[in-house]
UniProtKB/TrEMBL annotation:
Keyword check for tRNA-binding: no
E.C. numbers: 3.6.1.22
Protein keywords: Hydrolase, Magnesium, Metal-binding, NAD
Domain annotation Nudix hydrolase: ranges: 192-318
Biological source species: Frankia alni (strain DSM 45986 / CECT 9034 / ACN14a)
Name this polypeptide is given: NAD(+) diphosphatase
Cofactors, names only: Mg(2+); Zn(2+)
Family listed: Belongs to the Nudix hydrolase family. NudC subfamily.
Catalytic activity field: a 5'-end NAD(+)-phospho-ribonucleoside in mRNA + H2O = a 5'-end phospho-adenosine-phospho-ribonucleoside in mRNA + beta-nicotinamide D-ribonucleotide + 2 H(+)
Length: 345
């Protein structure tokens, strides 16, 4: 099915802002990962990001606080208010990089590492620190802090799942400052996994777009459609297949929008938009999608204006009226795509 649009310019649009976890605020220095001498030299001024077993990190609100690693590096994250990632001086943990420390990269000449750590690593009596997940606070962090926390969570997730070699089953050990693991039996090298997934905003080329609700979500929670790329499959082919499988629609004019890291646990979200015909019947994959609706641009704008996103408690009191549409929070590229489409008409 090929749609003929009266105004092709309406079909295309770009992102109104970069997705939250799409920035390049962190210098990923490949030579540094293999230069143990330089790592030890930089350890004296390095900072360490803590992530506990539940994926939470210490975050603090308020002005710059000396000695806590908050605003310790000059740049865009040095505002006087808002959440900041709490980091610890590396020398307070050890005199040199511990074997299990992961080198995240550098920002403004300061090296940042990540380790598993809990509340005992934070200064006693510091009531201003809260332990939060990247998902809950990532949209509020500055670009550097969001990039650091995303890298830390992604790397630690991978190491927790890569303790044994996929080829021979032998135990693996950390290498390259956390960016590889080597098996003990045959010295096979393995690298951090990233699973590509497409996420697509389906629209009619004019003023309607499609929203879907996963069967595990509460009533009223909607988003755009997404799915993992299969082996040997192109991104565009994946978009067409996933939309067809999940809601039974044929899509055309598939166009790329942007990407976002999504370390839950190790995905890369690749954003697209595509055109479908609202007159084509919806056929839902009930194993995944419990509801799909076409909505107008005005309805989307009203939902955005209400602020009824996923941050609203899922246990809100039940009513006889259908719940209002709740859209993804600003942490997700899905929200960036929806905002962008809403602003395009």
């Amino acid at each position: 099915m090929r749609l003929v649009l009266e105004d092709a310019a309406v079909t295309d649009f770009g992102l109104v802002r970069p997705p939250v976890l799409a920035g390049a605020a962190l210098l990923r220095d490949e030579p540094l990962r293999q230069d143990t001498g330089r790592q030890k030299e930089g350890w004296a001024s390095a900072r360490v990001v803590l992530v506990d077993e539940e994926g939470r990190s210490p975050v603090r609100w308020g002005p710059r606080v000396e000695g806590l690693g908050i605003g310790a590096v000059s740049g865009v994250d040095d505002a006087d208010a808002g959440p900041r990632l709490w980091t610890r001086a590396a020398t307070e943990i050890a005199g040199s990089p511990p074997p299990d420390a992961l080198l995240l990269g550098e920002a403004d000449g300061v090296a940042y590492w990540a380790v598993r750590g809990g509340a005992d690593q934070v200064a006693a009596g510091d009531d201003g620190v809260r332990w939060l997940t990247l998902f809950s606070v990532g949209a509020e962090l500055g670009a550097r802090d969001a990039a650091l926390l995303a890298a830390a969570v992604a790397l630690l997730n991978w190491h927790g799942r890569a303790l044994f070699c996929a080829r021979d089953g032998s135990p693996t050990r950390l290498a390259n400052a956390g960016w590889a693991r080597v098996c003990e039996a045959q010295h096979h090298e393995e690298y951090p996994r990233t699973d590509p997934a497409v996420i697509c905003l389906v629209h009619d080329g004019a003023d309607r777009m499609l929203l879907g609700r996963h069967r595990a979500w509460p009533a009223g929670r909607f988003s755009v459609l997404a799915g993992f790329v299969e082996a040997g499959e192109s991104l565009e082919a994946c978009v067409a297949r996933e939309i067809g499988e999940e809601v039974g629609l044929d899509v055309t004019d598939i166009r790329y929008l942007g990407s976002q890291a999504w370390p839950f646990p190790r995905s890369l979200m690749l954003g697209f938009h595509a055109v479908a015909d609202p007159a084509q019947p919806l056929r839902l994959d009930e194993a995944e999608i419990s509801e799909a609706v076409w909505v107008t641009r005005d309805e989307v704008r009203q939902a955005l204006a209400r602020g009824d996103d996923w941050a609203v408690a899922d246990d809100a009191p039940a009513t006889d009226s259908p719940p209002p549409i709740r859209l993804p929070g600003r942490m997700s590229i899905a929200r960036t795509m929806i905002d962008s489409w809403s602003a395009a008409g």
